[in-house]
Amino acid sequence: MMELAQPHLNRATVHNKNTGKLENAEYRVSKTAWLDDDMTEDKGRIVRRINRRMEDATELSHDYAELDQVNNYGMAGQYEPHYDMATREEKAFLDHEGGNRVATLLFYMGKTDAGGATVFIDGGVRLPPTQNAAVFWYNLLPNGDPDLLTRHAGCPVLAGTKWVMNKWFHVNDQIFTRPCDLQQFKREKEAKLYNGQYTT
Prior knowledge:
This protein is α+β, with helices and mostly antiparallel strands and 200 residues long.
């Protein structure tokens, strides 16, 4: 996936929280490539196989998922604290045909010599970039409200380079794997178990 991404790397963009449009921002320093399963035959076959594995691992439908995003963070590359989903104050993703981003799957594809950890600010979780590891989390509570414990940041790379790939699944078409629940705080007890207590 890193080899497929390299010819397509460009400066990373973010969604403007008011307009929903993509733009460059100083708080995200990296290069990004989007990999489509409609690429040339051999490349597309690789991407489709990876996407099927992601579906199997998460049990989430890929129908409304975004393209695979490969990110390369060089020296001092970082991403300041942010949410992957849209909150009520943000327009981004709320108008997406698949609805809001329900879950994130993040792969660490290369070894980083120093720095580059993923830190969940309010959850007290720090994940060092470990080659061939992955992390998965839900961005939304079962009733569809944003899970505010998922605010996270990519710490600056201090030595070497950091390669990650993420997949964002959207809420539509997940009715059988993650049905809506009217109990807004059903996951509150589960979240508290990890708040400030999860270590790696």
